[in-house]
Write a structure and sequence with these properties.
By secondary structure, this protein is of the alpha+beta class. It is built from six helices and eight strands; from the N terminus they run H-H-E-E-E-E-H-E-E-H-E-E-H-H.
C-alpha cells in the first residue's frame, strides 16, 4: 500500500507540473528552462515522498472495514486528512478526528477471520452441574456454524455466593459471530427450561435478631402493664 501511494502521488505531481509547463510555454516562456526547472522540482518532490512516506502515520484500516475505536464500533465509510466517517450498527454516523484514532487502540475485525463466542451462566448449587455442562456442549456441537477446531469447551469457572458459574467457549466465523451468539443464548434458555435446570439469581438473605436490651424493655413494659391492670382491678373492687 505504501508503494502504491508513492506511485499515485508521483503521477499526480508529474501531471501537475506538465500542466504548468504547457501553460507557461503557451504564454511565451522559454521551454528548455521551464522543463529543466519543473523536472528538478518533480524529481525532488518524488524523492521526498519516497523517503518520508513510511514515517507519516497512517490509519490502520480501509473503507469498508469494521473497527472498534474511540469508544465506537462500526463500519468505516470514508476517510479524509482530518477525520474518519464511521457508521455504527444502530445507524448513527460519527466523524472521528484522525488524531483521536491514532492515539487510541484500534481493533480491526477485518483481519480477524474467526471469533470466540463466550457464554457465561450461573446455576444454583442444588442443580445438576454435570447435566448443565452436557447441555451446553450439545448445543454448541449441534450448531453447524460452530467450528470443530478448536472444539467447544465447557468450564466450571467460579463458585459464587449465588451459585456455580459455568463458562462455555466456541469459535465461529467472524461474519457469523453475532447471529450465532444470539441463537446460542436462546437455545440455552429454552433447553435449560425443558430440562428443569434453574438459573441462579443474586440474592441477599436478611436475618432479624432482637437484641437483649429490647427483650428486657419488652419484659419491663409487660410487668408495668400487669401491675397497672391489677391496680385497676383492686380499685374496681373497692
Amino acid at each position: 500500500p505504501a508503494t502504491v501511494s508513492v506511485i499515485v502521488n508521483s503521477v499526480g505531481i508529474l501531471l501537475f507540473n506538465t500542466i504548468i509547463a504547457a501553460t507557461v510555454i503557451t504564454i511565451g516562456g522559454n521551454p528548455a528552462n521551464i522543463i529543466a526547472l519543473l523536472t528538478f522540482f518533480t524529481v525532488g518532490a518524488i524523492a521526498v515522498i519516497a523517503v518520508f512516506r513510511p514515517l507519516i502515520p497512517t490509519l490502520p484500516f480501509k473503507v469498508g472495514n469494521v473497527v472498534k475505536t474511540a469508544g465506537l464500533l462500526g463500519k468505516i465509510e470514508a476517510t479524509t486528512i482530518l477525520n474518519t466517517r464511521m457508521r455504527t450498527f444502530d445507524g448513527k454516523t460519527f466523524f472521528v478526528p484522525n488524531r483521536v484514532i491514532l492515539d487510541d487502540v484500534v481493533m480491526n475485525y477485518h483481519f480477524t477471520k474467526t471469533r470466540r463466542v463466550k457464554i457465561d451462566i450461573v446455576i444454583g448449587y442444588d442443580q445438576d452441574l454435570v447435566r448443565a455442562k452436557q447441555i451446553l456442549e450439545m448445543i454448541m456441537v449441534g450448531d453447524a456454524r460452530v467450528l470443530n477446531k478448536p472444539s467447544p469447551q465447557i468450564y466450571t469457572m467460579n463458585l459464587t455466593p449465588s451459585g456455580i458459574e459455568i463458562g462455555a467457549r466456541c469459535w465461529v466465523s467472524n461474519i457469523k459471530y453475532w447471529p450465532t451468539r444470539c441463537d446460542l443464548n436462546e437455545k440455552v434458555i429454552y433447553k435449560f427450561a425443558q430440562e428443569k435446570i434453574a438459573f441462579a439469581h443474586k440474592q441477599m438473605d436478611i436475618f432479624h435478631h432482637e437484641s437483649l436490651h429490647s427483650s428486657d424493655n419488652d419484659m419491663e413494659d409487660e410487668s408495668i402493664y400487669n401491675f397497672e391492670s391489677q391496680g385497676t382491678q383492686l380499685d374496681d373492687k373497692e
